[in-house]
Amino acid sequence: MAPEPVQPSDEELVEAVLRGQRERFGDLVERYQGRLVNYLYRLLRSVEDAHELTQEVFIKVYQALDRYDPRYRFSTWIFRVAQNAAIDEIRKRRVRLVSFDGREDDEGEAREWEPESPERGPYGALRNAERGGAIQEAIDKLPWEYRELIVLRHFGELSYDDIARLKAMPLGTVKNKLFRGRQMLKEELAEYLQD
Amino acid sequence: MDDRTERAGHDEIREWLSLEREPEALLSRDQQRRVDQHLVACSGCRGERERLIRLEALLAGGVLPVRAGFRADVMRSLPAAGWEARSPRAWRLPVAVLVLLALAAAFAVAMPAARTGDAGPVSGTAGAVADMIATGALAAAGMLWASWRGMGVALDAFLSPGAAFALLILVVSLDVLLLSFLVRRGRKPAPEIAGRRRGP
């Protein structure tokens, strides 16, 4: 069997973009788009906003690419940009006096999405919608310090180490907060975790 | 072992349970061994582990798919960044022009020296090559001029001076239009996010 081609690291891709290979930025987009969209979706609760903000994050990162310091991990850097963008967006929403936990009108954006599941038929669809809503509700109920870490770990797919760097926390604190966050989620989602 | 010690033991194991499947190997061998030993005897912690696995699966099933064409949308919306002007690729054209100018200057210097016969072998060869290129260029210019004259004769035969002038204006206008399109394509607009909603 032929060996799998070695994927360039994030830092190598950044280097290539800075050397003038603009199209290599597309590889970075491909690598991070899912993680960023999901991270932002869980914080903002809107599919459209998550995509738009992710696009803005990539634009900001591209414009500041020459200021990226390769001694640090690219993943930590891009998630820091995303985190700041999410906080700005949440502040803007508060200014607009839009309820953060309610669906909005046609011009608003808080449209929820239902996860795909093997369950089919009308009851299956209902169960999927319930489950999707329950996950989001459970996440929303978490205090911010736990919510952010849970979302970074499970939807941003950041390692414990990356989270510790991003949040400037000791690794032990990250472990502890993620443990507590998961305990709270287990209680909230107990109904879906039974046999 | 009293209740408090036993409870503390369970809590510690449960905290470790949430680390045991992490790819970063967050548990030491000793911790993993203690977890395994504890689970053999403790059904409560085994149940806890099952629930943890189900929770992770539940969260993993809640991953939102990225909309189709997202990468292309991002790449299209990328503005020209300030650092691009400093990238090596941006310098290629000016460098190529400079090299051509340097070569032309070298030929210009070498040619008179070759003609006077006091040139060395290198500059003599360069002068001969330059002479050959100059002759070729002269021949090409002559052919171009002849065809231009031929076109002029043809235009004279079919077009009045007024119509020829109008044609000239049309050609110049089309050139300007084409040039403006090219300039506009080269200068990217400020990042416009597709479907971005109203401001705050």
Q: In what range is the share of β-strand residues of chain A? A: under 5%
| Main interface by residue count | A-B, 59 and 48 residues
N-to-C series of helices and strands of chain A: HHHHHHHH
CATH class of the largest domain in chain A: Mainly Alpha
CATH architecture of the largest domain in chain A: Orthogonal Bundle
**Outline of chain A:** globular
Q: Based on DSSP secondary structure assignment, what is the total number of beta strands of chain B?
A: 0
Question: Roughly how many Å apart are the termini of chain B?
Answer: 61 Å
The averaged pLDDT of chain A comes out at 84
Q: Which sheet architecture does the biggest sheet of chain A show?
A: none
**Which superfamily, in CATH terms, is the homologous superfamily of the largest domain in chain A?**
RNA polymerase sigma factor, region 2, helix turn helix motif
Unreliable runs of chain B: 187-200
Element order, helices and strands of chain B? Answer: HHHHHHH
Alpha plus pi helix count of chain B: 7
First-residue to last-residue Cα separation of chain A: 41 Å
| Overall SS class of chain A | mainly alpha
Shape descriptor of chain B reads elongated
Q: What structural class do you assign from the helix and strand content of chain B?
A: mainly alpha
Mean pLDDT of chain B, to the nearest integer, reads 76
Short description:
The complex is a heterodimer of chains A (195) and B (200). Chain A is mainly α and 195 residues long. Chain A has helices at 10-18, 25-44, 47-63, 74-95, 121-141, 144-154, 160-167, 171-188.
Can you describe what's shown?
The complex is a heterodimer of chains A (195) and B (200). With 195 residues, chain A is mostly helical. Chain A has 2 domains: 8-102, Rna Polymerase Sigma Factor, Chain: A (Orthogonal Bundle), CATH 1.10.1740; 121-190, Arc Repressor Mutant, subunit A. Chain A contains 8 helices and no strands. In chain A, helix 2 packs across helix 4, helix 2 runs antiparallel to helix 6 (144-154) and helix 4 (74-95) crosses helix 7. The model of chain A is unreliable at 98-110 (pLDDT under 50). With 200 residues, chain B is mostly helical. Chain B has 2 domains: 3-59; 92-186. Chain B has helices at residues 3-17, 29-41, 43-60, 70-77, 92-116, 121-158, 161-186. In chain B, helix 1 (3-17) runs parallel beside helix 3 (43-60) and helix 5 (92-116) crosses helix 6 (121-158). Classes of the chains: A mainly alpha (195), B mainly alpha (200). At the A-B interface, helix 2, helix 3, helix 5 and helix 8 of A face helix 3 and helix 4 of B.
